[in-house]
Specification:
Elements (H helix, E strand, L loop, with lengths): L2 H4 L3 H27 L2 H8 L3 H17 L1 H11 L1 H20 L4 H29 L3 H32 L11 H13 L13 H23 L5 H23 L13 H31 L4 H8 L1 H10 L2 H4 L5 H18 L9 H28 L6 H41 L4 H14 L1 H4 L8 H37 L4 H6 L16 H6 L11
Helix pairs in contact: 2-7, 2-8, 2-9, 4-7, 4-10, 4-18, 5-6, 5-7, 5-18, 6-7, 6-9, 7-8, 7-18, 8-13, 8-14, 8-17, 10-11, 10-18, 12-13, 12-17, 12-18, 12-21, 14-17, 16-17, 16-21, 17-18, 18-19, 18-21
Amino acid sequence: MNATTTAIRPTDRRAATVVMACLGVFVAYLPITTVAVSLPAIQRALNTSTAQLSWVQDAFVLPMAAFILTAGVFGDVHGRKKVFLSGLLFCAAGAAVALCAHDIRTLWAGQALAGLGSAALLPTTLALISHAVPDHRERGKFIGLWAMALLAALAVGPVVAGVVLDHFAWRWIYLLSVPLPLVAAAVAAPLLTDSRAQHGRKLDWPGQITAAVGITALVYGVIEGGADSFTAPEVVAALALGVVALGAFVLVERRSASPMLDLAVFRSAAFTATALIALITFLGLIGFFFVLSLYFGMVQQLGTLEAGGRLLLVPVAAIVAGAPAGRLMHRVPARWMITAGLLLIAGPLLAMTNLDADTSYGSIAWRLIVLGVGLGLVTTPMTATAVAAVPHHLAGMASAANNTFRQVGGALGPAVLGALLSTRAVHALPGHLADAGVTGAQAHTIVSTAEEGGLGAVAGMNLGSTAGQVYGALGESLLDGMRLCLVVAATSAVLAAACAVVLLRPSKQQVAEGAPKGGSAPRHGRPDTAENAQADPAQPLGHQRA
């Protein structure tokens, strides 16, 4: 065979790119649910406080949210393949550090390294797909596969953690996350074709620094405020720093010749809508998963594997529903797919407000399945619309920005809903203790312990013969807090649906030209090709000046 016949064909390169991008996002999201369901075991093994334990997850999410935009720029400037491979290596290094951790600070360090790796993977995986599949109609199908890989990671995580924790020490939950990215990097190195922005993008250090400081300070302030008090001096200082830094970021980007995030992209109603939808939806959904895991663990007293198996219904249903979503995007406007999906999410959330300690799994299951179907209908068109709403050469910027909003929402969700749950539950606890027959000095001590250390701290008290009554009161208090969180999460989904209906309306020019509606077609309905991205005179984005 000659060199021509043995060469890798462009179609093979495209297939390899899509497969590696899907594997990359799987690696990026695997630690999220794997670690989340393992937190009780980690707390017992390392003897940590509740505040220290909360930072196990936050140490991963903070760098992930803060450096996604920076990673997108590095990929555009230095090559997305390089950043992709670096992200895989950071994920492997972080998992290896966590695997060897014997104290909480080492675990934080490993989580932070893995978070940096995930920040590098998320924008580059979408940008690699966008480069390999320039036609926006065909690209929707492959972004659908990318979204399914993301959901698959969320589904696999609890199962892996449950199996490991039933047989081994907690640290072995990281074992899969060491060889998987290393194998992926070894396979991707010879197969992936590198790509970068062709419009003279440069590193925007002032923008990168102000964005990282602003996002980190803001998320830190919300997390600590939810765990302690929003009036605490360090929380006020963090929130003030976040606002100032993000304000400086806006000023810097407006004046930059090569901005990290061209603010003109927000002139696109479709891009703005997907950013808001990503933020609002993931704030409610990730917060919901956090609250539901507490319900399964603290109210229904389920083990890690049982709870993980029940939560598995949501991502599995999302995968089944989301698989055809990419193919349907050129037939059904993204506006209506996203709106329908968000309403399908809101309905089950409201329906779960009547859960109690004895609710059967069958009664919960159908609600989780419907919620998963809604999530599947939202994820693919939301991501595809964000990428298609900007010129082809800004795909890395668009995917990075959309993922940033998604991760900020995901980071704020547990903090915001966790604070609501804790506040409502502690407020309801005295009444439920009285109903259970626990009064006097013991009730006062229990309430004081809950106010200082959370409901979980009460479980560590010596409750004597009243243990059963106290645990029952704790469960009822937690249910009160959970119901409030479910209403808030459902409301956020309805609000996101309203954003989709209002902001994803097709422009008059799109309708006149017969373009696909709902923001699924970029730039006035023209095919999403590199030529149009370079030559479209109607393009409002600031990069035409570059």
